[in-house]
Structure formats: structure tokens, C-alpha cells
Specification:
This protein is an alpha+beta fold and 214 residues long. 17% of the residues lie in helices and 46% in strands. The termini are far apart.
Length: 214
């Protein structure tokens, strides 16, 4: 009986500790989101890697992005994605093709160009994880687990720079076996952006295939 009571107390203490850690995780991510939303605009560069031992995939990528509110201009794998607040324009120079579509606003937990710095606010449980020193930066990791069982993501480790309260790294594990890692290379905030940063001008793409998805 004594051992049983002790076990119950230990479980209760562990549950309280987990709750405290989850509270810390939510608090830190809330601070990160609030800081990001306080900027009129951000511009950043990144490097990344996609790895899947099952398929033999090991691919490095790099790109850049500009964001202001819901609008964005993102370069990813050679394609430029522009969102003007209403429609997304995927500009593929290799195929000389532009695909116009509406952005999905179904509230899913999918990571997209429009929510890449705030996707963690909804659809995930959050837990305090390890802290590491990376290149002189103190990075606190938060583990995110999708609430929906149908998610294509298994888990996400989000690394936060403790000093700047900016996202520094994301390690995304998919159920397919792919691990995608993204690391921030540079970040600028509230700097003047070209007026056409989030506008699509069809006159610049004469003789290209331009198709609009329903």
C-alpha cells in the first residue's frame, strides 16, 4: 500500500511538472508570435535539407522570403510564390508557367508560406524540449505534435533563439519518413521593401503559360 501511494504521488508530481513545462512552451511561443506580428515586414534567408533514408533522398536547399501581414514573396526550390492578400501566384521560370490559386484557409496545421513563422499557434500540442548552443546562439527547442491524427507531420522541433525570441531552426519529421530541416541565415525587420514585392504583373510574363485554378 505504501509503495502504491508513493507511485501515485510520483505520477501526480510528474503530471504537474509536465503541465508546468507545457505552460513554459506556450508562453515562449506566444512571445515569439507577438514579436513577429509587431513587425510591419520581415525579410529573411534560409538554408534547408530534405532527407529520407527509404528513398535515398538527401537534398540541400536555400531560399529567401519577404513577408508583410498576410502577404508574402517566397523563393523555394526555384519557384517564386507571391500572395497579394487574395490569390497566390506560383511562378516557375523553368517551365515558364504561372499557376494562380486561392490560399487554403481551412484552419489546418499545414505549414505554408503564409504561416511559416506562426503556424504553431493552432493545431499542435506543445512541450518544452532540449536547449542547445548553436554557433554562439542559445536555442531552446519546443516539440510540436499535431493534434489531428491525419496530419502528414509526425512531429516538429522548433528552435527559438532565447535572446531575440525569433525562430532559428525547424526540424520537421513527416510520417513518410522524410525529415526536413530549415535554419535561418539572416533576418531583417521593418526595412523598406520594393512596392511591387507582393504584386503579380502579367505583362512581365508574356508568352508564358498562365493558368488559374478553381
Amino acid at each position: 500500500m505504501k509503495n502504491y501511494i508513493l507511485s501515485v504521488c510520483m505520477v501526480f508530481a510528474f503530471a504537474k511538472a509536465v503541465t508546468a513545462q507545457d505552460t513554459k512552451a506556450n508562453k515562449l511561443l506566444s512571445e515569439v508570435a507577438q514579436k513577429f506580428k509587431s513587425y510591419d515586414n520581415v525579410a529573411f534567408t534560409y538554408k534547408g535539407n530534405f532527407r529520407n533514408p527509404k528513398t535515398g533522398t538527401d537534398m540541400d536547399v536555400k531560399g529567401d522570403a519577404k513577408m508583410s501581414g498576410k502577404k508574402y514573396n517566397v523563393n523555394f526550390l526555384g519557384t517564386t510564390y507571391i500572395f497579394d492578400g487574395e490569390k497566390q501566384y506560383a511562378i516557375n521560370p523553368e517551365d515558364e508557367q504561372v499557376t494562380i490559386s486561392k490560399v487554403n484557409k481551412d484552419g489546418s496545421e499545414m505549414i505554408t508560406p503564409s504561416n511559416i513563422l506562426t503556424f504553431y499557434e493552432k493545431g499542435y500540442s506543445k512541450k518544452w524540449d532540449i536547449i542547445q548552443n548553436e554557433g554562439g546562439r542559445k536555442i531552446q527547442f519546443i516539440k510540436l505534435t499535431p493534434i489531428k491524427s491525419a496530419s502528414e507531420y509526425k512531429s516538429i522541433l522548433l528552435g527559438i533563439d532565447v535572446n531575440t525570441k525569433h525562430i532559428y531552426k525547424a526540424i520537421i519529421k513527416e510520417n513518410s519518413g522524410t525529415t526536413a530541416t530549415f535554419t535561418l541565415k539572416s533576418l531583417k525587420t521593418n526595412e523598406p521593401l520594393p512596392k511591387n514585392s507582393f504584386n503579380f504583373d502579367p505583362a512581365s510574363y508574356k508568352n508564358w503559360v498562365i493558368q488559374e485554378m478553381n
